[in-house]
Amino acid sequence: MNAIQPEAAQPQAIYLKDYQAPAFWVDQVKLDVALDDHQTRVISTLSLRRNDQREAGLPLVLNGQGLTLKRIELAGQPLAETDYQYQEDLLTVARVPDQFTLVTEVEIDPANNTALEGLYKSNTMFCTQCEAEGFRRITFFPDRPDVLTRFTTRIEADQQRFPILLSNGNPIERGELDNGRHFVTWEDPFPKPCYLFALVGGNLQAVKDTFTTMSGREVALEIWVEPENLHKCDHAMRSLKASMRWDEQTYGREYDLDIFMIVAVNDFNMGAMENKGLNIFNSACVLAEPKSETDAAFQRVEGVVGHEYFHNWSGNRVTCRDWFQLSLKEGFTVYRDQSFSADMNSAPVKRIEDVAMLRTAQFAEDAGPTAHPVRPDHYIEINNFYTLTIYEKGAEVVRMMAELLGRERFRQATDLYFERHDGEAATVEDFVACMAEVSELDFSQFMRWYHQAGTPKIEASGHFDADARTYQLTLRQHTPATPGQADKLPLHIPVRMGLVGPNGHDLPLELNGEQLGTETVLHLREAEQTFTFHNIAAEPVPSLLRGFSAPVKLAFDYSREQLAFLMAHDSDGFNRWDAGQRLAVLALQHLVNQIQANEPLQLDPALIEATRTLLNGEMTDKAVLAEMLRLPSEAYLAEQYEQVDVDAIHKARSFARKALADALYDDFLRLYKVNQRVGDYAPEANQIAERSLKNTCLGYLMAREDEATIALTQEQFNCADNMTDQRAALTLLAHAEDPRLGAEPLRRFGESWAHDPLVMDQWFSLQVTRPQADALDRLKMLMAHPAFSLKNPNRVRALIGAFVGQNRVNFHRQDGQGYQLLADVVIELNRLNPQIAARLVIPLTRWKRMTSERQDMMKAQLERIRQESLSPDLFEIIEKALA
Ligand code: 0A1
Ligand code: ZN
C-alpha cells in the first residue's frame, strides 16, 4: 500500500492570484499518535464537509509528505487501491460524498527527521513544528491556513521515557496501558489551522505559576524543560505574565484557554512557535539565568515570549487566509512585541536597536536578489519567506499606520479587526480596511508598501530665504528596481520632522497658513514635493524622519557642524543618535577613501570632539549614551556603497576605534570605572544600561591592547559574577591581535561550561568572529570539535552563521576559502536541513556588490551548489542568486 513517490519535478511557483477557497472543510479531527522513535503511528479521523462556495464534485485532495500509508477508510469502508492516489505529496480521492469521515493510518520516522519540520526528536524528547507546512509530514490533511478545525489529540508513549505528553488545549483523559505505556488525550476548543498544532512527549519538568486575567479567570502557566534547565525558567515566566498583562492593558486582549504552556527544545529551526496553548521555543529564546546568559539573552527571552504570546490574538484567533498574508500576523506581532519591549525597557534604545537591524539586514535584503514585497505575490518555498522583510519591514508598515491613526484610533481599529475577524482567516486588505474605516483616511496609495519591494530613497534639500523668512524643504522619493519589479510608483511616506533653530530649540512650524506646533508629519505622496515654512527668522537645521517614521533611506547634505549640532540639540532622541551615526559614517567614509588612495590615515577631529562631548556631557540615559558611542557596524557601512570594499571598511573602523581610544583614553577609563556596579546582578534596565556603557568603554580601551587595559579585561573576566561582563571580557581577549591573550581564558571557559549548550554556542561564536586572519583555521578546527554537529541549528548558526554574518573580512577572504567553506556546508545541509541551508547561503547570494574577483569566486560556489539535487528551499534561493 506504500505508493512509490517519483523523483520530484522541478519545483513550481505558487501565485497569490491563483488563490481559491478550499474544496472541503474539516469540522473535526481526531488524532491518535503512538510515539515511537522510528515507527510512530498516526491515525487520523477527519470529519469532512464540502465547501458549497466551490463547484460540485471536486475530488478530495489532501497533503501528505513522506508518509507511509497503512490504511485508508471512507465512511467506515476501506478504500480500494483504485479509489485513491498518493503521488507527489498529494493524496487524491476522486469520488467522495458531500459529507463524510475519512480515516487514515500512517507511519512516520521522527528519529530520522533532521529537517525539524513535522514530528521530530530533539535530544530525548519528541516535538513538532508545523508552520508553515509541517503538518503534512504528520498525517494527511488540507495543510493550508484557511481550513480551521477542532482538534482532539490522543498521545500514547512509553511511560518511563515519556512521562509528559502535551498537546493543544486542555487535557481531558489520561490512563495507563499495557507494556508500560500510557496515554493522554487533549482537546482544543478553538478551531485552528493545522500549522498551529503541536505535540510534545518527554521526560520534562515544569516551573508553574498562575495568572488571573482581567475578567478574573485563573490561567495555569507552565514552562516545561529538561530537568537540568529548571533553574533557567524564572525570567521567561516573569516575561509571560508581563506579556499577558500588557496585552490586556494595551490591546484589551485576554487569554482564552485555562492553561498556557511553553516547552524548551534544543533543536529548532527558528526562535519559537506560537502553537495554540502550547508554544514551543528554541531553548535559546526561553532559558536565561544570570551566571550563564547575558543581558542581551534576557531581553531576547522577554521579546520572544511576548511575541509568541501576542500571536494568540494576532495570528491564532485571527489567522492568515494563505501564506502570502504572512506579514499580516508577523508584521503586526513584531510591532506588538517591539512596543512591549519598549515599555519594559529603554524605549529609545529599543527603537535604535530595531532600526539599526532594519537598516543593515533588511535594507540589504531589499537591495539583493531575494528582495520581495511585504506581501509577496509568488513563492516556490514558503519557508524562504520568514524574512526580515515580512517581519521587520512588515512591522514598520504597521507602525506607520499606527502613527497615521494616532494611539486611540489605532486601538479602535485593532479592536475592530479582532472582533470582526475573530475565528477567521484574514487578509492584509481586511486589516487595512479596519484602519481605513476607523480613521476615514484613504489607504489606497499606502497599500503600495505591501506590494512594492525595495527601500525607497528620499533626497531632501532645504532652502532658506532670509528676506522672505521662509524655509523650503523639497523631498524627492524614488524606489530602486528590484527583481521582477522594474518600475515603482511613489509611496505615501509619513515624514515626522521639525526645524531646529540656532538656539537649539524647535521652531514653530507654519505651513500653508496653518500653525502646526514644533513638530509635524509631512505626507509625501508625490515623486517630488516642496513644503514652504513661513516666519522663519534664521536658518534652521532640519530634523527629518524623527523616530524613523518610515523605513526609507534619507539623504540630506548635512555639514559636519550641523550633525554635531543635531547630536547635541535635536529634541528627538532617535535623531540625536542618528546624527551621531551620520557624522561617524562621514568620518569612516573619509578613512576608506584614504585607505583606497594609500594615504596616511587621520580620523576626523569633529568625530573625536563629538565623542568627547558625549563622554563628558550630562547625558543621564546611559543606555542611549552607550548606543551613541557605538560606531556604525561594518555591515551598515557596507550598505552605504554600491561596490563594497570589505577590507577598507574593516580597516577604517578598526583605525577609528583605536584613534578614539588614544584621544579619549582617560574619559573612557573614567566612565568604565564609574559604571562598575556594586551589589547583586539583576537584568533590569538601569543595570543593563550601566553594563552596556561600561563594556562599550572597555571595548574602546582594548582597541589599544595596552598592558593596563589587558589587565583590566583579565580582571573583569576572572571576577565577573554575571555572564554579560564575563563574556564581554572574554570576547575582547579572544579578539585581541595577540592570540595568546585569549588562549587560556577560552580553554577555562570552554571547560567549565561544557555541560551547557547555550553557553557553548557563545564560546564557539566568539572564536570565529575574531577579526584576525587565523579565524578560518579556527573555524575549521572547531567544526571538528566533538561538540559540533550540523544537525543542531543553534550550533550551525553559532559557528558558521556567526563567521559568515559577523566576520566579514574573513568570510570575504581574498583567496575565496570563506566562500568555499560555506558552499561545502550548504551542500551538506541541503540533505539534512533545507531550511537552515537556504538561510545560511544568503550572504553568498549578495555577490553583485562585491569587487569583480570576489564576484567570480562567489558565483563559482553558487554554481557548484546548483549542481546538486537541491531542495525547493535552496533551489529557489540559488536560482534567484544566479538569475
Ligand atoms: N511563527 C513563528 C515563526 C516560525 C516559523 C517557522 C518555524 O519553523 C519552520 C518556526 C517558527 C514566529 O513568528 O515566531
Ligand atoms: Zn511570529
TrEMBL record:
Cofactor: Zn(2+)
EC number: 3.4.11.2
Family: Belongs to the peptidase M1 family.
Catalysis: reaction(s): Release of an N-terminal amino acid, Xaa-|-Yaa- from a peptide, amide or arylamide. Xaa is preferably Ala, but may be most amino acids including Pro (slow action). When a terminal hydrophobic residue is followed by a prolyl residue, the two may be released as an intact Xaa-Pro dipeptide
BP-aspect Gene Ontology terms: proteolysis
Aminopeptidase N-like N-terminal domain: residues covered: 41-196
Domain Peptidase M1 alanyl aminopeptidase Ig-like fold per the UniProt entry, residue ranges: 454-556
Identification of the protein by name: Aminopeptidase N
Residues spanning the signal sequence: none
InterPro entries listed in its UniProt record: Aminopeptidase_N-like_N (IPR045357), Aminopeptidase_N-like_N_sf (IPR042097), PepN_Ig-like_sf (IPR038438), Peptidase_M1 (IPR001930), Peptidase_M1_dom (IPR014782), Peptidase_M1_pepN (IPR012779), Peptidase_M1_pepN_C (IPR024601), Peptidase_M1_pepN_C_sf (IPR037144)
Peptidase M1 alanyl aminopeptidase C-terminal domain residues: 561-883
Residue intervals passing through the bilayer: none
Segments forming domain Peptidase M1 membrane alanine aminopeptidase: 236-449
Keywords: Aminopeptidase, Hydrolase, Metal-binding, Metalloprotease, Protease, Zinc
Highest rank taxon of the organism: Bacteria
Biological role: Aminopeptidase N is involved in the degradation of intracellular peptides generated by protein breakdown during normal growth as well as in response to nutrient starvation.
Recorded GO MF terms: alanyl aminopeptidase activity; metallopeptidase activity; zinc ion binding
